[in-house]
Give the backbone structure.
Amino acid sequence: MNRKYRKTIIAGNWKMNKTPSQTKEFMNEFKSMMPKGRWCDVAFCVPAVCIPAAVRAMRETRVGIGAENCNANASGAYTGEIAANMLVDAGCKYVIVGHSERRAMGETDMDVNAKVKAALQAELIPILCVGESLEQRELGLMEDWISMQIKSGLNGIGEDKIRKVVIAYEPIWAIGTGKTATPDQAEDVCRNIRTVIRKLYGAKIARAVSILYGGSMNEKNAHDLLAQPDIDGGLIGGASLVPAKMVEIIHAANQPTD
Ligand code: PGA
């Protein structure tokens, strides 16, 4: 983390878990345990039907609510889809874009780029996810692959908008597997992502963009991961479903840094 130049963000990704009633229960419990005083930005990205309950429960707090996906179009004949401006109107501040689980369902880099643009247009903060498979890592393709995902995800996004984008590095082999990247492995990739952003937008902007790590981050390993200079927070799946674990991770994000 480097709090001088950029925000620290701890974001939950609930995936397809919890009903609206369970959301209300969770948020009330979480609220009662939330650390007092100054702390990092906190967000919960929840299933679309849980957004109203989450927004209502967190209204008077600094916790932001987000969605897990959006459509790239503003409106129209897209049965079952949700537009970015609908999410804003429902009270969302964030949207996850390009999660590997959605890419596995057929989302392309062009789709992801269009969604990032749609989110920014609607004034939602996109959390752009990138990450390599184990095979790509073992074949030495990781750096090029992630650089390509970043370049295509940010294609056509100007300097005025890039500051609103949050990047999440999520190695596919670490998601939901209990296999976390070591702090050094995660730092290496997050540093490379910042280098790619520096080449695209310059040093000042690269220094200001928050880059999160995701993939089996939990209350036990968060401290060491977040101590790395280029890891500015976490995108947390499994552990974000348990209030006490999220609170511990937020405490880890409040550790002193230079
Ligand atoms: P995990 O999920 O923490 O359960 O590995 C992270 C994510 O997919 O965002």
